[in-house]
Write a structure and sequence with these properties.
By secondary structure, this protein is an alpha+beta fold. 53% of the residues lie in helices and 18% in strands.
């Protein structure tokens, strides 16, 4: 006998006290009975709105019944994630002041030193890209879907996108209350600025001195 075909659906009704409910299949809308014993050990507590994958077997009364249930997306987990993401922390003024101060510094560097094209383009381009990464991660947190890795956000900041990241943290109220992330973010921002200044200095005054100009 072959393996039962897997189906997808949504838990549209659940009686927690009695431990059973009904799935509505994605294709066709047929309702299938499900007992709590069809869920694997350690599965999240069933909640109406759960998106599931399951097979259909024959129950004790001879009627179709869901078996081998796997929760693809827990409605309760989505609600909890949205609640966490929706907690809006206070806007911090200092991080927002750092960005215009850096723009002033960048302007002074551009006026006094010979800056390569990449030095002019990298910060606005990477800042926009980093802001969009934060926006995507914020939306994913609200929707309970796959998140952007914190490593990706930090690397984007190190590569020149930290001004956009700093603005996104305050405007979107995202990642602005996590101390470990904030510490890593600003350490990498300082490192980025230091590397940028050294690279520009090497290609500007020192290069001119070495060439005898």
């Amino acid at each position: 006998m072959g393996t039962p075909a897997r189906r997808t659906g949504v838990l549209v009704r659940w009686d927690d006290a009695r431990g059973f409910g009904f799935f509505e299949e994605t294709d066709g809308g047929r309702r299938v009975f499900v007992h709590h014993s069809a869920y694997p050990s350690g599965a999240p507590r069933p909640s109406e709105g759960d998106e599931v994958e399951f097979a259909v077997g024959v129950g004790r009364n001879g009627r179709p019944e869901a078996i081998d249930v796997r929760v693809q997306r827990s409605a309760r987990a989505v609600q909890e994630a949205a609640a966490r993401a929706g907690r809006r922390g206070r806007v911090a003024i200092l991080p927002l002041l750092v960005v215009p101060l850096f723009i002033i510094l960048l302007g002074l560097v551009l006026s006094d030193w010979e800056v390569p094209l990449w030095g002019i383009v990298i910060y606005p381009a990477m800042s926009v890209a980093t802001f969009l990464l934060y926006l995507a991660d914020k939306r994913a947190a609200l929707d309970g879907t796959w998140r952007v890795r914190e490593t990706t956000l930090l690397v984007a900041g190190l590569l020149g996108g930290w001004p956009g990241g700093a603005i996104a943290q305050q405007v979107l109220r995202h990642k602005n209350r996590k101390r470990e992330f904030q510490a890593a973010f600003w350490c990498l921002a300082v490192l980025n600025v230091a590397i940028f200044v050294l690279l520009v200095w090497y290609q500007g005054p020192i290069a001119a001195l070495l060439q005898g100009r």
